[in-house]
Amino acid sequence: MTASFSLPDVEPAHRRLARSALSRRSAAGELMAFHEWFAAESRRTSFEVRPASLDGLSGWHTDPGTGNIGHESGKFFTVEGLDVEVLGAARPRWQQPIIVQPEVGILGILVAEFDGVLHALVQAKFEPGNVGGMQLSPTVQATRSNFTAVHGGRAVPYIEFFRDPVPDRVLADVLQSEQGTWFYRKRNRNMVVEVDPDLEVRDGFRWVTVGQLHRLLGVDGLVNMDTRTVLSCLPIAGPGPIVGRGTGPYLRALRASFDPASGGAHQLPELLSWVTGLRATTDVTARRIPLAEVRGWSRTDGRITHDDGRFFDVVGVDVRAPGREVGGWQQPLLRPVGTGVAAFLVRDIGGVLHVLVQARIEPGFHDVVELAPTVQATPTNHPGAPPAFLDEVLSASADRVRFDTLLAEEGGRFDHALTRYLLVDAVGPDPDLPGHRWVAAHQLAELLHHSNYLNIEARTLVACLYSTS
Amino acid sequence: MTASFSLPDVEPAHRRLARSALSRRSAAGELMAFHEWFAAESRRTSFEVRPASLDGLSGWHTDPGTGNIGHESGKFFTVEGLDVEVLGAARPRWQQPIIVQPEVGILGILVAEFDGVLHALVQAKFEPGNVGGMQLSPTVQATRSNFTAVHGGRAVPYIEFFRDPVPDRVLADVLQSEQGTWFYRKRNRNMVVEVDPDLEVRDGFRWVTVGQLHRLLGVDGLVNMDTRTVLSCLPIAGPGPIVGRGTGPYLRALRASFDPASGGAHQLPELLSWVTGLRATTDVTARRIPLAEVRGWSRTDGRITHDDGRFFDVVGVDVRAPGREVGGWQQPLLRPVGTGVAAFLVRDIGGVLHVLVQARIEPGFHDVVELAPTVQATPTNHPGAPPAFLDEVLSASADRVRFDTLLAEEGGRFDHALTRYLLVDAVGPDPDLPGHRWVAAHQLAELLHHSNYLNIEARTLVACLYSTS
Predict the structure, then answer these.
(1) B280 in helix, strand or coil?
(2) Does residue B163 sit in helix, strand or coil?
(3) Most confidently modeled of B153-167, B192-206, B316-330?
C-alpha cells in the first residue's frame, strides 16, 4: 500500500479555539454596550401580533376530511393528531394535537477569533410567539422552506456558510430533536462554523464573545431556544479556563468537569448501555391520526383546546412586522397552558461536576427515549401528584440555586412558551434513582456530538452550566 | 457541594481485557479441535428444510384485504409492501415487499478471560436459510418473541446475562440496523457482556478465543451474520498487539489503526458533519403499503417474485429440526436472487489503515443514510451499468486482495443469502469521491459505540479487518 496523501494537523480546530478564546472575560462595560445595541434594535423593528381565528388564517387551510391544518404551499408545518400508547406506563394511552414538520432546518452560529477571543455572530430577531418581541438568535435560524424561499421572502443572510460549509471549519454539526410532546419527530441541524473575522456584519447582527453569550443566558427571556441548543453543541473541551475567574470549589469543579480526561460516576459505555436497554425494551407507539378524530380536545371559537383546559391550546395569530423577511403573515401557534420547569440537580463527585439526568419518553422523539433534565414538567398539569424532584427544586434554599432564569421556547411555533430553567445543588446522598443517572459534564459534551441523546430542555441547561460563574 | 461517593476505576474494563487478551494467538491445533467439535455438532443435529407454498404455511396467515403475511400470534414479523421515493435519485421511485419486525431482539456474546486470553462463548446453531444448515452463532440470538416464549419453545440459554446485565460488565451494548433493503427499520441490540470463567457451558456451546473467532471469519459460510455484527461492536482499542505476529507494513498499519490516538484523513467532527449534511438534505420517503398493492411484483404458485426476476423472492419453507427450540415449523423467508458483493477499498494513510466508506441510502434505515462498504451490490441486479468500484474490486489482482470470503446473511429470515466480502488494497491516488470518504479504522470503532452509523455489511467488514493477518 502506498501513502499518497498525508494526515492533516490532528489538533481539532475547536480545541485550539476553545483554549485560546475563552480565557478572557467580558467586562461589564461590554455587556452594557450589548444591551444598548439590543434595545436600539428592538426600537428599530416595529411589529404587532394580534389573536386570529384558526378558521380564517390567510395562507392556511383546514382539510375538511381530516381536520388537519396546513399551509397552502404544502410547506412549513401541519397540525395533526397523534395517538400514543406507552405499554406499562402510568398513563398508557392518550391522544393529542401535534405539530408535524418533516423538513430539517438549520440553526447555525458563525464564530471567529478576534485577538485570541472566540466571538459568535448573533442577531436580534422577532418571532410572533416571543413575550418581548425580540430575542437573541443565532446567525441563522431557518427552515428549509425559509432558505429555499417558499414564502417569497428575502434570502436568509449568511445561509451560504451553512448550506455548503468548508469541512475543516465546521466545529459542530449535528441533528438534534426539539420538544417531543409538541413536535412529531422534528429535528434541526445544529451547526457552528468558523469564519474569518473580516466578515461583513449586516444590519441587526453583532459579534459577542462566547463568554458574553454565556453570561447573557442568565437574563430572563433574552437568549432564544435556537441559540441555546447550538451553544450546547459547541465543544468546549480541554483543561484550560472555561468560565469564571472565581476559585471556589464549584468553579474548580466546573472547569475540570468539561475535561474529557475526567472520570465519572459511570463510565460512558455503561451510560450508553442504559440508554440502549431502555430503547430496546420500551414499547412506544405514536401513530399520526386525523386532527378531527383526536379525543379529549375540541376546536371551538377558532382555537383548539384540551377539554380540561390543560397542556396547550392551538391558536392563530396575525402578524405585522416590516423588518422581517415577509412584511406580514398569519399562522397557527401552539400556546402552552402554564409555565414549565426544567431543572438539573447538580453535584460534585470526585471533583467532577455531575448532573442527574432523567431518561424520558416523549411521543415525538425519533428514538423512544432521550436524556432530559432531572425534572421537566409544567406544574399546573400535575395538580395532585407532582413529579419526582419538582417540589425539591422549587423549594430549594437560595444558596443551593446556581441558575434560575425564565427562558422562552421557539417563538416561531410556540406562543408565550416560558420555562423556568434551574440548576440546583443536590443535598443528601441521592444515589441513582430508577430512571435517573448521574452523568459527568464532559460526558454530556461527548454525547452532544451525536443525535438524539439529550433533549432540547437538557441542552438548554448544558448551555446554562457555562454561565454559572 | 459534598462528594458522597467516589469515582470507580476509570480504566474501562474492555480496554483492560483487550490489552491482555489478544496478545496470544490461537495455535493451529486449537483451530483443528474447534473444527472437529463443529463437525460433531453438525452431525448431532438432524434437520430438514423443504420448500413450502406461502399459501398454506402453518401458523401464518395472509390478510385477505392487504395481502400482508403475518404470524397468527401477531408476533415475529410481517411481510408488507413499501413505497419508496428518493428525490433526485437515479431511481427516484419504486415499490417492493419488505419484512417488518418492530421488535428489538438481542444478539449477545458472553466473554471471559482464561489465563489472560479473552474468550467468546459461541454456539453451533441451525437456521432454515443457512446453506450448510449449521453456522457459528453468538451466545444469544433471540427475538423478543423468542425470549418471551411466544412460540412455546424452551427458554433461551444465557438470556439472563443480557436482559438484565450487570452494568460494569457490559463491554458493548448498542442498537444496530440490519439490511435496509429487506427490513423496515429493523434493529437489534448488539451486546458483549463479561462473565466469570467458571460459567457452565451447555450442550452446543463452546469457548473460543477472540483471536480464533477472527481467524474463523475467513472460512466460507461458517461465522453467521449475528456473530459478525456483535464482534464488530467489541471495542478493541489501545496500542497493544491486536492481530497477527507478522511485521509487514500492512500489519503494522492495522495494529496502529485501532489506536484512538491515531490521526485520520478527516477528523471525526468533519465525518460527522458529512453524515449530518446528507441526512438533513436527502429526501427519502418510505411508506408502508399493502403487499397486495405493490407494483412490479406478483404472488403466484405460492411465492412472491419480481416481474423481471430480479432482487429477491419471498418463499415458504417447512422445517423439521428436533434440536431447535421448537421441533418443527413453517415460515416465510426472503430469498435473494444472485450473490451479493460487499467490499472495502483499504489503504494506508500516514501509517493508519483507512477504508473508503460510501454514504448509502436504504429505504429501511432508521435515519436516511448509513456508512456502507465502498461497493455493495448484487451484480445480477445491474446487468448494464455496474455500480462504482464493482469492476475494480472483482478484477483486482490477487496480491491486492486482503480478504475474500463468502458469508451468509441471517438464516432465520433470508434463504441462501450469500455475500462475497472483500478487502482490497486501493491503487492510484483515489481521493474522496462524491458520496465516499476515507475513514480511519479507529474512527469506525468509535462510531460503532453509537447506533445507525455503519450498516450491517460494513460491520461485517470491520470484523473481517481483524482477521487479515
Answers:
(1) helix
(2) helix
(3) B192-206
Q: Is A204 helix (H, G, I), strand (E, B) or coil?
A: coil
Give the domain B8-46+103-232 fold. Nucleoside Triphosphate Pyrophosphohydrolase (3.90.79)
Distinct helix (H) and strand (E) counts, chain A: 11, 25
B431, B432, B434, B436: CA torsion to nearest 10: 140
State the pLDDT at residue A155: 86
DSSP string, A241-259: --S-S--SHHHHHHHHHT-
Could you read off the pLDDT of A192-225 as tens digits, one per residue? Answer: 999 999 999 999 999 999 888 988 999 999 999 9
Angle value at C-alpha B420, between B417 and B422, nearest 5 degrees: 150
What would the mean pLDDT of A1-18 be, rounded to a whole number? 38
The mean per-residue pLDDT over the stretch B383-397 comes to 91
Distance between alpha carbon A357 and the CA centroid of its chain, in Å? 16
Give me the residue spans of the domains in chain A: 8-46+103-232, 249-284+337-467
Q: Do A170 and B270 touch (CB under 8 A)?
A: yes
Contact B273 A173 (CB under 8 A): yes
CATH superfamily of A249-284+337-467: EvaA sugar 2,3-dehydratase subunit (3.90.79.40)
Contact A1 B173 (CB under 8 A): no
CA distance B385 to B363: 21
Residue of B1, B191, B249 lying closest to A1 (CB–CB) = B249
User: Which residues of B307-399 form beta strands (DSSP E)?
Assistant: 312-320, 328-336, 340-349, 352-361, 369-372, 375-377
Amino acid B391: pLDDT: 93
Question: Is B464 part of the contact surface with chain A (CB cutoff 8 Å)?
Answer: no
Q: How far apart are CA A32 and CA A360, in angstroms?
A: 39
What is the signed CA dihedral for A393, A398, A403, A405, rounded to 10 degrees?
A: 80
Q: Name the residue of chain B whose CA is nearest to A440's CA.
A: B7
A75 touches chain B (CB under 8 A): no
Please give the Cα distance from B345 to B438 (Å, whole number): 9
Interval B38-58 mean pLDDT: 92
Q: In CATH terms, are A8-46+103-232 and A249-284+337-467 the same topology? A: yes
A405: phi then psi, degrees, rounded to nearest 5: -140, 140
Taking alpha carbons only, the member of A444, A6, A7 closest to residue A232 is: A444
Q: Provide the angle, in degrees to the nearest 10, between the axes of the packed helices B225-233 and B456-465.
A: 70
Among A8, A13, A169, which residue's Cα sits nearest to residue B349? A8
Decide: helix, strand or coil at residue B314. strand
Sign (positive or negative) of CA dihedral B382, B383, B388, B394: positive
From residue B31, alpha-carbon distances to A201, B131, B210, B403, B408 in Å are: 68, 22, 12, 19, 21
Q: What is the mean pLDDT of residues A70-76?
A: 92
pLDDT band at residue B467, thresholds of 50, 70 and 90? Answer: confident
B104 vs A280, A350, A425: nearest CB: A280
Higher pLDDT pick, B427 / B146: B427
CA dihedral angle for residue B230, residue B232, residue B237, residue B242, rounded to 10 degrees: 110
Q: How confident is the model at residue A389 (pLDDT cuts 50, 70, 90)?
A: very high
Asked if the model's pLDDT at residue B21 lies above 70, the reply is no
Residue A24, pLDDT above cutoff 50: no
Q: Which residues of A336-374 are buried (b: 16+ CB within 10 A; e: fewer)?
A: beeebbbbbbbbbbbebbbbbbbbbbbbbbbbbbbbbbb
Residue of A4, A146, A233, A423 to mutate when probing chain B, most B C-beta within 10 A: A4
Q: How far apart are CA A408 and CA B48, in angstroms?
A: 65
* Region A390-397 average pLDDT: 94
Tell which A residues from 150 to 189 touch B, by Cβ distance under 8 Å.
Answer: 165, 167-168, 170-175, 189
ipTM: 0.89
